[in-house]
Amino acid sequence: xxxxxxxxxxxxxxxxxxxxxxxxxxxxxxxxxxxxxxxxxxxxxxxxxxxxxxxxxxxxxxxxxxxxxxxxxxxxxxxxxxxxxxxxxxxxxxxxxxxxxxxxxxxxxxxxxxxxxxxxxxxxxxxxxxxxxxxxxxxxxxxxxxxxxxxxxxxxxxxxxxxxxxxxxxxxxxxxxx
Amino acid sequence: xxxxxxxxxxxxxxxxxxxxxxxxxxxxxxxxxxxxxxxxxxxxxxxxxxxxxxxxxxxxxxxxxxxxxxxxxxxxxxxxxxxxxxxxxxxxxxxxxxxxxxxxxxxxxxxxxxxxxxxxxxxxxxxxxxxxxxxxxxxxxxxxxxxxxxxxxxxxxxxxxxxxxxxxxxxxxxxxxx
Lengths: 178, 178
What we know:
The structure is a homodimer. By secondary structure, chain A is α+β, with helices and mostly antiparallel strands. Helices cover 58% and strands 19% of the residues of chain A. Chain A has helices spanning 2-11, 14-86, 93-112, and strands at 116-119, 132-137, 148-153, 155-160, 163-168, 170-174. In chain A, helix 2 packs antiparallel against helix 3. At the A-B interface, helix 2, helix 3, strand 4 and strand 5 of A face helix 2, helix 3, strand 4 and strand 5 of B.
């Protein structure tokens, strides 16, 4: 068995060891490539699922933000009905106006619950561009040049975890600069 | 050069061809595994970046939903100031109340802009669980059993692209079932 002897020799030769090692390396790399491939496929699939969910979550977050403010306003609106029902025919204008001020306060508190705060600068407050908007210039005693004389229309700021955001600048009258 | 002759023989042998093929396969698989690995790493990195962004987007969407309703309410609130300023000392209670109703309408319109609609069922309307909440039973002529007699407190519904959502059920008086 010349041939048998040859292959017996070959199995014990260093060349055979090389081939075995290479074959093992091929098997190992094949497994590695497959594993990496399925990791990539899974990551992409997870990503796409997440994208779909994220879009829905974003829509839901917008609606939930809007609803929560709406709900607070709705509760304040109930005060209107109560006020309108409770006011008897003999109420004075003064009494009704007091009621209006109460409702206004109620609505402002409803907004405050959501971080919305009214800005009503006081005379001689520093003028802050962005937060204040000058609609008129007028000198007034005791007010430094360029400073606020009076608030014409209140502004609103939204205070959140991410910082402050001006919803509407307060319209103010400023003293002219020298 | 016995050894030289040996290696020359070996380079031309079928065993050498096997080793060359295996080596080529190893190189190819190594490249495949690397490519798949970097695809997986990139997909995971993209995914993580997207997750961070999505969380921020969600927060921003909530704030933007809340702010947009708040802005509409703020504009309605201005009407209060105008009303309070414009009302002269001689206004009658009746006139002030009319003003209050105007402001109430204004606020309801502000909410409507965001899909928030008031529910005020009419007498003899069908009672819809979820949309209506029975707070009292009372028989009334002309109202079918189990139907609505009167609205005690209006409800609110949010109409959006995704359908309707009851923000608050309308509190109603229902006629008792037979």
